[in-house]
Amino acid sequence: MSDNHAESEVWLARAAAGDVSARAQLLQLHRARLRRMVTIRLDRRLLQRIDPSDIIQETLILADRRLDEYLRDQPIPFYPWLRQLAWDQLVTALRRHVLAGRRSRSREEA
Length: 110
Description:
Elements: H1 3-16, H2 20-29, H3 31-41, H4 52-73, H5 78-109
Helix pairs in contact: 1-2, 3-4, 3-5, 4-5
């Protein structure tokens, strides 16, 4: 069991008990790991348009909003759940920017 996993379990228990600061600590604990994942997985076509920090911020905001649901169900360990949220944000960003690029090319051709 990794130190992060053990520490996550402590923060999860405190967050489930209603400790608001534990929520922030839990998310902060995984910020660096998420940053590495997002930086590696961010489509190179988007590097000029999107900063990994934006994806991380959107992911952590979404995680905070959905944390009560996660705490109720705990379908998978915390970090894989958080990583999936980050992946979803990456896919959304790619779709948004690819579509924007297509619209831009369509306008140029018109």
